[in-house]
Design goal:
Protein name: TVP38/TMEM64 family membrane protein
Number of helices: 11
Keywords: Cell membrane, Membrane, Transmembrane, Transmembrane helix
Shape: globular
Oligomer: single chain
Number of strands: 0
Structural class: mainly alpha
GO cellular component, one term: plasma membrane
Family: Belongs to the TVP38/TMEM64 family.
Distance between the termini: 46 Å
Strand content: under 5%
Pfam family, one: VTT_dom
Length: about 190
């Protein structure tokens, strides 16, 4: 789908386009296989950097926080207690309880971290809801801002190969660093 087609659909729906710009990242928090990077780039190219980034950021923060709150409510259900009894989940919960919100903040800054998993595990830990909201606001701001900046003018990606190569390299580096940090924090041998 080209930028003109995306803009055409947003123009047809008028202010509903803003709702779609918010809802797509919001829904991604519930269905993590959806591509948050694509939603942010589409938003930024349809609404401009500021509005597009703001819509994507609000959508992903609100969606992630609602997932956190839902699973926090379900903590005492039989299914969630069964999940909590897994050794790997117990280890991760204890790690989060000991280290606090910094590892979660770092993990959530990277677009390739499975945020739904982090939301669920954080809901099982003893992190206060307001502290988690602050972490979400800050980390998602960094993540969405970076993606928005990289995908701000998608047409130049095809006319300026240096920019395309730079973006591919930045995404590869972010992915690599994110995986290393995720492996360190999620599978720490200190447990």
């Amino acid at each position: 789908m080209t930028e003109e087609q995306v803009q055409y659909w947003f123009d047809i729906f008028g202010s509903l386009g803003y709702i779609a710009g918010f809802l797509l990242p919001f829904i991604e928090a519930f269905i993590p296989i959806l591509p948050i990077i694509v939603f942010v780039i589409v938003n930024v190219n349809a609404f401009g950097w500021f509005v597009g980034t703001l819509l994507a950021w609000l959508g992903t923060v609100v969606g992630s926080y609602i997932v956190f709150l839902i699973f926090r409510r379900l903590t005492h259900t039989k299914y969630m207690q069964k999940i909590q009894q897994r050794t790997s989940v117990q280890r991760l919960i204890h790690f989060i309880d000991r280290k606090g919100v910094i590892p979660i903040f770092i993990l959530m800054c990277f677009p390739f971290t499975p945020s739904a998993l982090v939301n669920i595990v954080a809901s099982l830990s003893h992190i206060k809801a307001h502290a988690y909201l602050i972490v979400l606001i800050a980390s998602k701001f960094i993540m969405i801002g970076l993606i928005g900046w990289l995908g701000n003018d998608i047409t130049t990606l095809f006319t300026n190969p240096i920019r395309l190569i730079t973006i591919v390299l930045v995404i590869a580096i972010v992915w690599f660093v994110g995986r290393k940090l995720e492996k360190h924090f999620m599978h720490s041998s200190e447990e």
